[in-house]
Amino acid sequence: MDRRQLLIGGGAAGLAATGGCASLAGRGLADQTVWRFGDLDRLAAPLTIEGAPLRIEGPASAGGSALQFDGVDDALFIGRHPLAGASTFAFEAVFRPDGGAFEQRWLHLQSDEALVPGQTPVGTRFLFEIRVYGDQWALDAFVKGPTYNQTLLFPDKRHPVGRWHHVAQTYDGTTYRAFVDGVLQGEAAVAFTPQGPGRASVGTRINRVNYFNGAIAEARFTRRFLRPDQFTGVRPS
Fold first, then answer.
1. In a domain, 236, yes or no
2. CATH number for position 48
3. pLDDT tens, per residue, the chain with 237 residues
4. Residue 120 region, left (φ>0) first, then alpha (ψ -120 to 50), else beta?
């Protein structure tokens, strides 16, 4: 039986049909979108669930629930790019990596460049990835567009698997930065230009490779720069 279920604008009935998850919330300030993955019903965009991600207990300050992904075929595909048009940003998430494959690409925002007349597609996107080293992991934050192509990966800065962590990538107009639990991992000067409308995948890269083994509680997309002391995500529990 095909395990895929297309949900237009969310819907608990469709989630129940794919394995009993709740739904994805889009909420926040005027310039901020919040997705809570234990509460999917409020997402006002097309949502496809693949595999059977499980709703589990998560950090209380991130809504108290999360989605667990099996690292094989569990994924969400969402019909919007929450940072489209932003010239500065803060992109945060609360997640729990549980080890497994070395490369895992778990939160992907992709611009639909083919829809823009006269624009040559270059794979404009944001990515949150990890690299796994036994019982530790390192963050890989990545952004690419017509005028920039930057990876922030520092394998010597490792963190324990099996715990909740807050991660962030930010841009203040000149410098792109990556953080784990509010601590700077690294930075680089980037000639960033706003990305166009598009779509997102959660639990895998948009082309269904490098699936994620672990749980994701929340993602926050702020269309302005935030300092670490302004992050609204959750510190590890």
1. no
2. 2.60.120.200
3. 333 333 323 333 233 323 333 345 555 578 999 999 998 876 657 899 999 999 999 998 788 999 999 999 999 999 999 999 999 999 999 999 999 999 999 999 999 966 555 666 689 999 999 999 999 999 999 999 999 999 999 999 999 999 999 999 999 999 999 999 999 999 999 999 999 999 999 999 999 999 999 999 999 999 999 999 999 755 554
4. beta
Q: Is 0.90 topped by the overall pTM?
A: no
Structure tokens at 215: 């749980």
Q: What is the DSSP string of 45-66?
A: SEEEEES--EEEE--GGGTSEE
Answer left, alpha or beta for residue 232, where phi above 0 means left and psi between -120 and 50 means alpha: alpha
Contact 15, 7 (CB under 8 A): yes
Rounded distance, CA 125 to CA 224, Å?
17
- Residue 168 domain-assigned? yes
The residue segments making up the domain with residue 131 are 5-230
Query: Of the candidates 141, 106, 110, 147, which has an alpha carbon nearest to the alpha carbon of residue 125?
Result: 110
